[in-house]
Specification:
- The chain is mainly alpha-helical.
- It has one domain.
- It has eleven helices and no strands.
- The protein has helices at 3-20, 24-33, 47-54, 56-79, 84-99, 112-122, 126-141, 144-152, 154-163, 166-182, 184-191.
- α5 (84-99) packs antiparallel against α6 (112-122).
- The chain starts with a helix and ends with a helix.
- The model has no long low-confidence stretch (mean pLDDT 91).
């Protein structure tokens, strides 16, 4: 690997994190609703909280904006002819930027929208995988959050079947672990047995 390529990869990684740190939930609610979403509802800057507070339009705009971040980092890596491993690391950094954005003092969203946007562009076959996985889990647990997170567990398996690449599979697992960690409090509340 030449010094130029090495420098380009590191520039791409920094770019990915900074793209992830663009918080559409904060920007859209501030511009269109004159509100600071960080002090409304759950305080989360993601699409779900915005949707509860400001309706479907806010949800859709913020979801698409956050998903676009994942799309951009994958497309940028492909334009630069980076390997699939580098692409997935870039996606991981974009998600990290969304969860811990430098733009909002490292207090961001949960990363789901950015992950969905990125992983679907990375491998379009993930669309039916996510839908099928979600449908299976939701049938039993009746929770959008848990069903969505459960569906993501199929992704590394399918990636391995398609590419026969353990490294991509492990990076995908790492990304999913990051998403689970971001949802830790929510998961504890939902999994806690009724008293």
């Amino acid at each position: 690997m030449t010094k130029v390529v090495f420098a380009m990869i590191w520039f791409y990684f920094i770019f990915s994190y900074l793209i992830g740190s663009i918080m559409f939930g904060f920007l859209i609610t501030k511009i269109f609703y004159r509100k600071d979403i960080r002090v409304q509802g759950s305080g989360n800057v993601g699409a779900r909280n915005a949707g509860r507070l400001h309706g479907k339009t806010a949800f859709v705009l913020i979801f698409l904006g956050d998903a676009l971040k994942g799309v951009l980092v994958i497309l940028a890596a492909r334009y630069l002819h980076f390997s699939e491993t580098i692409q997935l690391v870039g996606l991981a950094l974009a998600i990290m930027g969304h969860i811990k954005p430098i733009t909002l003092k490292f207090k961001g969203g949960k990363g789901i929208s950015t992950f969905i946007g990125g992983i679907i562009v990375f491998e379009p076959l993930m669309v039916p995988v996510i839908i099928l996985g979600f449908s299976i889990f939701y049938t039993f647990i009746k929770s959008f959050t848990l069903a969505g997170l459960g569906a993501f567990l199929f992704i590394p398996v399918v990636l391995f079947i398609i590419n026969n690449d353990w490294l991509s599979c492990l990076i995908a697992l790492g990304i999913i672990a990051m998403l689970y960690a971001a949802h830790a409090e929510n998961l504890k509340g939902r999994l806690k047995p009724n008293e």
